[in-house]
């Protein structure tokens, strides 16, 4: 049965990678504006659907389609910040969260009109023939997913550590007033944060589309899973939420394989509630919330 | 260089400043005195764009800047070092300083390196601590870092909000003397202080803010000898410089 | 804003609600009898019951909890299972469902007590998903994903509920009953405490409100409404599946709450009308339903934060004020009552005694080795330059912070460590540097919240007020008016707090603190932001309070005020006490002068 064990591991890493990418976006937005973006999953779906349309309907080659998908998701992120978050930003935070919830409903509605209610698929990037790793048969697309997550984390980390804009983003997250006084245009950094977050989300949608069918409703559950991962990881810490995402994916996969596949979502949330009860600030969160 | 005229402003329902008028010229150090709650910090925030101005006007370097954003003002040469230093605790000393040049010189490596060198000249301890996280520095070092970061933008005018707060006298001395040095290089300085004596000993001119209005202004020495200034602090009339 | 009266003395206000609501509800009953829309309306009425519960938690309590779908589901499934498998009659089934929900909600409330805002949202979302998945995965018990059928026809006191019209009537009657009870409750002591907590938890705690306890009670109460609604919903549907209660329904209900108008109790059902009826009426627009919902939701946040109910209220504009009880202009009664409440401690023993108090943050000492005493009837001022530790001292004295070392004794007993509400119950009241008022309430209601500790009514008495409760409310209102007269705010008693000037806000906060009948009142920078005449009034007020036996501790910067009113002055500098004496002594003290003006720091040569 060792093949199964490995198989499940890859399955867990795959879904965990998606959760991690969603969670990264959530944390970027949270650090920029202290808002939990309930519309985040919609960026993932948008990225996937646009790419599918470009590739299948318009017959564009894969890479430009992907660029289109990620691009549209990015634009959606910027629009969310401009049209929804900014006008409501004077309100208490829980109103902001609900405003993003409202936006998610709106985006879902638009997607339903444009793409209908069908589940759509994208062709796998490098074919469907499974690779043999040990006793397990792994879809090549899985490696694309995991690879994308690794690349996203690495590039984002490098961006934040070594570029001027990245450091400015960290500064704004910590102390926007000081950042402003240092000469940083905080508003444009906020927009950049949303754009990056949405882009990573869109990418996640693109790479998972060949494995899991995407339909206009898929965003909500993704948002919740991403939020779960982010909360487990501690909301402020980028590496923490990546860890949270991977943990979530792996626990879900093993729980689904060895305990019950029907209860896999319930299992995930039970873990979340358990973690929060013991550490209300999340696993790697710093401040007690 | 800086001209504030008839400025009134505050926080929402609360009007803190009423008709404040002051000026700072290049190469001079002006001290703004007053007790807690007089509105000193509020005034600096109105000048640097953090707070909206209800009435009146702020002009810097010949242009009206009343509604300009803080980061735009930094580009024009006005830097504000806030109360409590405001360093980025999760970033290193060097990263903090680099961010100071964000407005002008994002990514212009050569210029940033040159400016870093200048700041390290002014504050040698910062160079020793260049790789440390700012949150681990002592109060005095953080104050140096905050001022250093402001200097990275090559300001022509510096606003400082209570740099001496929480610092030991020797450290205060060192920082104030550094400011004097910078002043001789042409920098205009508006210094807000609660601890009047040390600041007045080095400043050119002073204003006294009480309950949101300027109640006294003049050469620093004259203000130091003025009994009524002390009165606003402690409710009695004994000259500041005297026994 | 004030959708309900903050006091219960206005019987006229509550009395018209039920007849008007019945009249409005009879319109669909008459107009749609026999039409296919009757079913929609019966669902709307039933959701109206659930929305009362949601409004309590999310509207008034301002808790971002998404657990309501789960409680609705439990209410529905317990009823359905008991009816289908065991033939249990309606009322028994509803009662059983309520019991289950009370237990579950109590557990969830306790578990999430320490979780704030966002974490609560995600955790309760998770809870909702768990419940729905469990219901779907246990087909032997619940019929699984394909649903539960076989419920007996509901029968209430011999009346068989078999048509949509029957369920509409039943739903409306229960809904209006729930709304009336909830309206009473939100106007009572309980409701004021909950609203205060929602506005500003710390300020509420400082008035003696145990926020943990109220939060749990609110949660459990809300689950009762949700349970009843869930049970009725199941009966009306005849067949229920987990999908009837899933996350989409949860979010829909939040949508209804906001579009209809939160914090009104009657508003959200209008939201339900919009969300449920419009798609049914315009079936051709089905595809656009989601977009329109999203737009409606967003429009509410950006343009109509108070929802449909808010719009209607603005159109109606007629504020019916409660009949005002005779307000005694003399404030003397208030003050002597306050003094009597303070134990006369024998021969000058200190009321508050602080010994060796210390507190550090991140290695920096904010307060170190501070000791002083406050005797009863004294007015003491704490002064010191910026950063001296004065606000930290206040936070230590009021239980907001725990000291690292040292003791604080009030009337000889150590300060309780259960939080600010326990400190308030011990007789210490406090105002804040920036007044922390309850912005959703009127001036009078704010003061009434201060009376919380002197009143006895609980949740039950709040829902159905009997003579004793009504009488204690009347007295509380009267006392509150007297306190407002004392601070000169009598004329604006019914004004919204948001319309007050800064000086008025400050005075209101003092009146509210006095309402708790404290032995000691700690006031943080009362003169800040006041003009000269306001300061004169304040000074007079402080002296009168002191003369009536109240003990006062002030943090203040305005020396002229301090000179005028203080008996003694304590001076702090960098967390240490550097002087303690009469104002005149302190004024001449060399170390004090140096602390304020800073040391003589010689200019470096060259």
Outline the biggest β-sheet of chain A: 2 strands, antiparallel
Q: Give the CA-CA distance, first to last residue of chain A.
A: 43 Å
For the largest sheet of chain C, list the strands in their spatial order.
8-9-10-5-11-12
**Overall pLDDT score of chain C:** 86
Q: Sum up the overall morphology of chain C in one term.
A: elongated
How do the helices and strands follow one another from N- to C-terminus of chain A? HHHHEEHHHHHHH
Low-confidence stretches of chain A: none
Descriptive report:
The complex is a heterotrimer of chains A (289), B (243) and C (606). With 289 residues, chain A is an all-alpha fold. Chain A has a domain at 21-127 and 139-216. Chain A contains eleven helices and two strands. In chain A, a hairpin with a 2-residue loop joins β1 (131-133) and β2. Chain B is α/β, with parallel strands linked by helices and 243 residues long. In chain B, the strands form two sheets. Chain B has a six-stranded mixed β-sheet, with helices on both faces. Chain B has a four-stranded antiparallel β-sheet with strand order 2-1-4-5, covered by helices on one side. Chain C is α/β, with parallel strands linked by helices and 606 residues long. Chain C has a six-stranded mixed β-sheet, with helices on both faces. The chains are: A mainly alpha (289), B alpha/beta (243), C alpha/beta (606). Chain A binds chain C through residues 36, 84, 87-88, 91-95, 97-99, 101-110, 112-113, 220, 224, 227-228, 231, 235, 260, 262-263, 265-266, 268-270, 272-273, 276-277, 280, 282, 289, and chain C through 62, 64, 111, 114-119, 121-123, 125-127, 129-130, 133-134, 136-137, 247-248, 251, 254-255, 258, 287-295, 297-298, 300-302, 305.
List keywords for this structure.
heterotrimer, A: 289 residues, mainly alpha, two-stranded antiparallel ribbon, C: 606 residues, alpha/beta, Rossmann fold, 3 domains, 4-stranded antiparallel beta sheet, 12 strands
Concise synopsis of the structure shown:
Chain A contains eleven helices and two strands; from the N terminus they run ααααββααααααα. Chain A is mainly alpha-helical.
List the helices and strands and how they pair.
The complex is a heterotrimer of chains A (289), B (243) and C (606).
Chain A: H1 2-33, H2 40-57, H3 62-88, H4 93-115, E1 131-133, E2 136-138, H5 140-162, H6 164-174, H7 176-181, H8 186-208, H9 218-233, H10 238-259, H11 264-278
Antiparallel strand pairs in A: 1-2
Helix pairs in contact in A: 1-5, 1-8, 1-9, 1-10, 2-3, 2-4, 2-8, 2-9, 3-4, 3-8, 5-6, 5-8, 6-8, 9-10, 9-11, 10-11
Chain B: E1 2-11, E2 14-24, E3 29-33, H1 40-48, E4 53-60, E5 63-64, H2 70-76, E6 78-81, H3 93-100, H4 102-105, H5 109-122, H6 124-128, H7 139-151, E7 157-161, H8 169-184, E8 188-193, H9 196-202, E9 205-210, E10 213-219, H10 220-225, H11 227-234
Parallel strand pairs in B: 3-8, 3-9, 6-7, 7-8
Antiparallel strand pairs in B: 1-2, 1-4, 4-5, 9-10
Helix pairs in contact in B: 3-7
Chain C: H1 11-15, H2 17-31, H3 37-60, H4 68-86, H5 90-111, H6 117-137, H7 139-142, E1 154-156, E2 159-161, H8 164-186, H9 189-199, H10 201-205, H11 211-237, H12 247-260, H13 268-281, H14 289-302, H15 307-316, H16 332-341, E3 350-361, E4 364-375, E5 379-383, H17 390-397, E6 405-410, E7 413-414, H18 420-425, E8 428-431, H19 443-450, H20 459-463, H21 467-487, H22 502-514, E9 520-524, H23 532-547, E10 551-555, H24 559-565, E11 568-573, E12 576-581, H25 583-588, H26 590-597
Helix pairs in contact in C: 2-8, 3-8, 3-11, 3-12, 3-13, 4-5, 4-6, 4-11, 5-11, 8-11, 9-11, 9-19, 12-13, 12-15, 19-22, 21-22
């Amino acid at each position: 049965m060792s093949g199964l064990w490995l198989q499940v591991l890859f399955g867990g890493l795959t879904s965990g990678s998606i959760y991690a990418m969603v969670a990264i976006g959530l944390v970027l937005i949270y650090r920029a504006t202290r808002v939990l973006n309930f519309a985040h999953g919609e960026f993932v779906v948008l990225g996937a659907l646009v790419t599918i349309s470009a590739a299948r309907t318009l017959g564009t080659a894969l890479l430009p389609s992907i660029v289109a998908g990620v691009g549209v998701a990015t634009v959606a992120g910027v629009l969310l910040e401009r049209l929804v978050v900014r006008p409501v930003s004077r309100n208490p935070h829980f109103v902001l969260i609900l405003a993003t919830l409202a936006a998610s409903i709106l985006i879902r509605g638009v997607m339903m009109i444009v793409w209908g209610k069908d589940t759509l698929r994208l062709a796998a990037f490098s074919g469907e023939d499974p690779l043999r790793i040990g006793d397990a048969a792994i879809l090549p697309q899985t490696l694309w997913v995991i690879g994308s997550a690794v690349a996203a984390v690495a590039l984002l980390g490098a961006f934040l550590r070594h570029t001027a804009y990245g450091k400015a983003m960290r500064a704004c997250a910590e102390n926007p007033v000081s950042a402003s006084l240092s000469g940083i245009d905080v508003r444009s950094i906020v927009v950049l944060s949303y754009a990056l977050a949405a882009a990573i989300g869109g990418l996640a949608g693109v790479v998972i589309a060949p494995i899991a069918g995407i339909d206009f409703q898929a965003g909500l559950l993704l948002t919740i899973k991403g939020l779960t991962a982010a909360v487990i990881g501690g909301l402020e810490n980028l590496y923490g939420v990546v860890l949270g995402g991977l943990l979530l994916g792996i626990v879900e996969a093993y729980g689904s394989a060895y305990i019950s596949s029907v209860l896999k979502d319930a299992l995930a949330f039970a873990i979340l509630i358990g973690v929060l009860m013991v550490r209300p600030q999340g696993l790697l969160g710093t401040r007690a919330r | 260089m800086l001209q504030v005229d008839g400025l009134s402003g505050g926080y929402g329902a609360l009007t803190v400043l009423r008709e404040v008028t002051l000026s700072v010229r290049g190469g001079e150090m002006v001290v703004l005195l007053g007790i807690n709650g007089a509105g000193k910090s509020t005034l600096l925030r109105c000048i640097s764009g953090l707070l909206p101005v209800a009435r009146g006007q702020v002009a810097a370097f010949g242009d009206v800047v009343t509604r300009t954003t803080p980061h735009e003002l930094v580009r024009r040469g006005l830097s504000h070092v806030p109360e409590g230093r405001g360093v980025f605790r999760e970033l290193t000393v060097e990263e903090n300083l680099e961010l100071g040049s964000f407005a002008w010189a994002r990514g212009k490596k050569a210029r940033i390196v040159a400016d870093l060198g200048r700041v390290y000249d002014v504050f040698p301890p910062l160079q020793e601590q260049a790789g440390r996280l700012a949150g681990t520095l002592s109060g005095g070092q953080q104050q140096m870092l905050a001022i250093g970061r402001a200097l990275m933008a090559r300001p022509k005018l510096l606003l400082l909000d209570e740099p001496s707060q929480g610092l030991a006298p020797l450290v205060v001395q060192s920082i104030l003397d550094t400011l004097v040095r910078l002043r001789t290089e042409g920098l205009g300085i508006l210094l807000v202080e609660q601890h009047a004596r040390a600041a007045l000993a080095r400043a050119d001119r002073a204003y006294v803010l009480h309950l949101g209005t300027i109640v006294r202004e003049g050469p620093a020495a004259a203000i130091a000898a003025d009994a009524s200034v002390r009165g606003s602090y402690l409710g009695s009339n004994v000259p500041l410089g005297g026994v | 804003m004030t959708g309900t009266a903050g006091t219960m003395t206005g019987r006229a206000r509550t009395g018209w609600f039920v007849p008007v609501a019945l009249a409005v509800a009879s319109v669909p009953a008459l107009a749609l009898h026999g039409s296919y829309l009757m079913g929609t309306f019966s669902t709307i009425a039933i959701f109206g019951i659930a929305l009362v519960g949601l409004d309590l938690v999310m509207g008034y309590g301002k808790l971002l909890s998404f657990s309501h779908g789960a409680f609705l589901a439990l209410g529905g499934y317990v009823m359905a299972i008991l009816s289908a498998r065991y033939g249990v009659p309606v009322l028994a089934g509803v009662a059983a469902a309520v019991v289950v929900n009370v237990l579950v909600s109590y557990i969830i409330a306790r578990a999430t007590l320490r979780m704030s805002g966002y974490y609560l949202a995600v955790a309760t979302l998770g809870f909702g998903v768990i419940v729905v998945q469990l219901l779907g995965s246990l087909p032997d018990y619940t019929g699984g994903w394909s649903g539960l059928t076989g419920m007996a026809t509901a029968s209430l006191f011999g009346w068989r509920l078999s048509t949509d019209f029957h369920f509409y009537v039943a739903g409306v009657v229960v809904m209006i009953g729930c709304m009336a009870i909830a309206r009473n409750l939100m106007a009572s002591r309980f409701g004021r405490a909950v609203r205060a907590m929602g506005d500003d938890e710390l300020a509420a705690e400082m008035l003696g409100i145990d926020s943990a306890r109220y939060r749990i009670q609110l949660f459990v109460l809300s689950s009762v409404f949700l349970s009843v609604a869930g049970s009725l919903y199941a009966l009306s549907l005849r067949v229920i599946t987990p999908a009837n209660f899933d996350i989409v329904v949860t979010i829909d209900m939040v949508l209804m709450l906001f579009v209809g108008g939160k914090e009104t109790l009657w508003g959200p059902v209008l939201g339900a009308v919009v969300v449920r009826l419009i798609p049914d009426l315009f079936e051709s627009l089905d595809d656009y339903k989601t977009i329109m919902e999203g737009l409606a939701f967003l429009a509410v946040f950006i343009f109509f934060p108070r929802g449909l109910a808010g719009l209607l209220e603005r159109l109606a504009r007629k504020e019916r004020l409660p009949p005002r009880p005779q307000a005694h202009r003399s404030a003397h009664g208030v003050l002597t009552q306050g003094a009597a409440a303070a134990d006369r401690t024998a021969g000058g023993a200190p009321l508050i005694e602080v010994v060796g108090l210390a507190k550090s943050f991140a290695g920096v000492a904010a307060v170190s080795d501070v000791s002083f005493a406050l005797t009863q009837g004294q007015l003491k001022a704490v002064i010191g330059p910026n950063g001296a530790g004065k606000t930290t001292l206040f936070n230590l004295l009021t239980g907001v912070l725990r000291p690292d070392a040292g003791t604080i004794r009030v009337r000889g007993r150590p300060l309780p460590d259960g939080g600010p509400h326990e400190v308030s119950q011990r007789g210490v009241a406090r105002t804040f540097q920036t007044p922390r008022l309850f912005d959703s309430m009127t001036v009078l209601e704010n003061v009434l919240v201060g009376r919380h500790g002197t009143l006895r009514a609980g949740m039950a008495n709040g829902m159905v007020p009997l003579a004793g409760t009504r009488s204690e409310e009347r007295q509380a209102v009267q006392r509150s008016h007297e306190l407002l007269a004392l601070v000169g705010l009598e004329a604006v008693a019914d004004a919204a707090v948001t319309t007050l000037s800064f000086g008025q806000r400050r005075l209101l906060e003092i009146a509210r603190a006095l309402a708790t009948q404290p032995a000691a009142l700690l006031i943080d920078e009362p003169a800040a932001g006041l003009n000269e005449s306001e300061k004169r009034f304040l000074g007079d007020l402080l002296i009168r309070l002191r003369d009536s036996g109240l003990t006062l501790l002030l943090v203040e910067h305005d020396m002229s005020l301090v000179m005028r009113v203080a008996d003694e002055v304590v001076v702090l500098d960098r967390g240490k006490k550097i002087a303690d004496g009469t104002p005149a002594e302190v004024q001449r003290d060399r170390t004090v002068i140096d602390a304020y003006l800073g040391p003589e720091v010689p200019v470096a040569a060259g």
